[in-house]
Amino acid sequence: MHLNISLVIRLSGDKSTECFDKYKPVVSKGADNDYASDFTVKIINPEHPGDCPRKCDVMVVTDETDFLAGLPFGEDIKLYPVYIGDSEDVKELFLTGKIYDIWPENEDDEIRKVRFDRVLRSIKSVYDAWLYENILTTMNDSVPDMIWFKDMNGLHWRVNDAFCEAVNKTKDDCRGRDHSYIWGVPIEEGLACQDSEEQVIKAGRTCEFEEPVKKVEGLKLFKVYKSPIYDRFGDISGTTGIGRDITNFNNMGLELSLLVENIPIPILILSTDRKTVRMNGLFGNSFIGDMVVPELFEYEKWKDTHLRTTAIIEETDETVRYEASIKIGGRKHYYVVNEKRIRDYFGNTSGYFCFFRDVTDEKVYEKHIIRMANTDALTGLYNRRYFYDYIKEHSANEMTLLYMDLDFFKTVNDTFGHTRGDEVLKKTADFIKDIYADGIASRLGGDEYAVVLLRKMEKNEYTKKEKLLQEKVRSLFRKDNKDYLGVTISVGMIVSDGASSEGKFDIDEFLFNADKKMYEAKRKHHSEHK
After folding, report:
1. 476 is in which domain, residue-wise?
2. Helix and strand counts by DSSP (H, E) for the chain
3. What percent of the chain lies above the pLDDT cut of 90?
4. Residue that terminates a domain, selected from 102, 121, 137
5. Secondary structure of residue 69 in the 3-state scheme
6. Do 307 and 383 belong to one domain?
7. Which DSSP string corresponds to 27-42?
């Protein structure tokens, strides 16, 4: 947390301006100040007291006693007045705590800078002490377990709200008191508590105990963790403890059922032999309905029959996490399944938690994103990036590449506009997908297309399908139309036997050769057009 300190300098004559200029670098925020990251000092003009924020720490430097006497001492502003001058002038104010410090009127500049720095650090220390006290109290009182701190004589000097509730006493009533008084038991009945603290002090580390405590309503059993408290010299000055009433731990079954039932994901609890101990309603409703009594549900058999693992995410001795799919109501759902080992107080396996997180929507969205990344938005064919990746991935396979380019397509855009041009591109894409249905069809950009088949295409098949594609493309424009453009498509074919024995495959050369074949067909179409 950050502390803002306001600084007011009120000196007689022109000394205020001189003091501002001389000591401003000392109190201004800057990288050379090792306390700058902890607090910021804002210099306030004494002629404009309204600039000083309310509820803040204010350091006042003045040589005017009347100005000191008129300062607004109160809870909203924490004042640290410093008087420059003779101590006799402000003796009564100093003795009553109204003045924080008295400085001589004349002294070395370096010493004066140190004085400024020390007061600022002192203000910060007071703030830190309050802050840490407040944080410690808030943290302790937020914990539902009992927390206490004791000195070396076994007397309590701090307890939390949970402790006070357990012993039915206030914090003030507990402060400075021993175990027997606080719990209302004879001294000899508190010796077990004293013995455990001596063990902690001797061990010099946190120790764990189960301590019986006799209360008015009967004997209670507490699980207790006690630790030594070290002072700044490294010596043990006391102990602290955290305690939880485990007397009624047998009633935790009901609390566990309520907890499991209210968690908004399907949950299953298994015994050490993987038999169902408990399941929540969401698990039953999602996967098995009311056809099976939960205690008779065979998880491992159901998992083998209905769950299909699609990916292992994590597999350790403590946790197995994997992605799985299951059909529910005719629709495939995806879940991340987390099977976690449950260990008891002694570290032994006591069962397993199985959590099912539905990630169906995430998977659908993921597939949508992948599809968008790999397809051409206009035609729905695969895009250039996917086309290149596909060829690289299958470079070791025998494949046929058909490289295609529309002829005279520019005249379509020039004559009919780009909307009509887009229709031609989409229709051509549809023709390619239909004719080369067993291939991977891509739009490489503009009016260029390509089809990859993971097999060798014979010449007669190529000729037959090229002719069919040509007819389809020509059908986009009527011949008897005066604006008939004679749009055709050029197709170049090249076959690869796969990567060499050395694993070499030059994709650029492969595409270049297919492109050359395509341009041979294009020159023929252009000559026919003329």
Report:
1. 375-529
2. 17, 20
3. 36
4. 137
5. helix
6. no
7. HS--TT-TTTTTEEEE
Which amino acid is present at 230? Answer: Y
Q: Is residue 370 part of a domain?
A: no
Q: What pLDDT score was predicted for residue 51?
A: 61
Q: How confident is the model at residue 173 (pLDDT cuts 50, 70, 90)?
A: very high
**Is the domain of 313 the same as that of 275?**
yes
State the pTM of this model. 0.43
Q: What is the pLDDT of residues 118-156, one digit of tens each?
A: 888 888 888 888 888 999 999 999 998 999 999 999 999
> How many domains is the chain built from?
4
Structural domain ending residue among the three candidates 208, 227, 247: 247
**Same domain for 124 and 157?**
no
- Count Cβ atoms below 10 Å from residue 432 Cβ, excluding itself: 27
275 and 236 within one domain: no
Is 335 buried (19+), middle (13-18) or exposed (0-12) by CB count in 10 A?
buried
What CATH number corresponds to the domain at position 124? 3.40.50.2300
Check whether 268 has a pLDDT greater than 80: yes
515 and 450: one domain? yes
Contact 516, 493 (CB under 8 A): no
> What's the Cα-to-Cα distance from 204 to each of 17, 233, 238, 243, 468, rounded to whole Å?
57, 14, 11, 19, 89
Q: How far apart are CA 62 and CA 99, in angstroms?
A: 11
Beta strands in 462-528 (DSSP E): 488-496
Q: How far is CA 432 from the centre of its chain?
A: 47
- With respect to residue 167, please indicate whether it lies within any of the assigned structural domains: yes
Looking at residue 251, what is its pLDDT?
42
Q: 214-239 burial string, b = 16+ CB within 10 Å, else e?
A: eeeeeebebbbebebbeeeeeeeebb
Cβ–Cβ < 8 Å for 287, 326: yes
Tell me the per-residue pLDDT of 499-514, one tens digit each, with 9 for 90 and over. 654 557 778 888 888 8
Q: Give residue-wise pLDDT tens across range 487-502.
A: 889 999 999 887 654 5
- The beta strands (E) that lie in 256-398 are given as 267-270, 276-279, 308-315, 319-328, 331-343, 349-358
Residue 27 lies in a domain: yes
d(CA 387, CA 378): 16
Cβ–Cβ under 8 Å, residues 181 and 199: no
Per-range mean pLDDT, top range of 226-235, 368-377, 387-396: 226-235
Residue type present at position 285 = N
Running DSSP on this structure, what letter comes out for residue 189?
G
CA dist., res. 60 & res. 44, Å (int) = 10
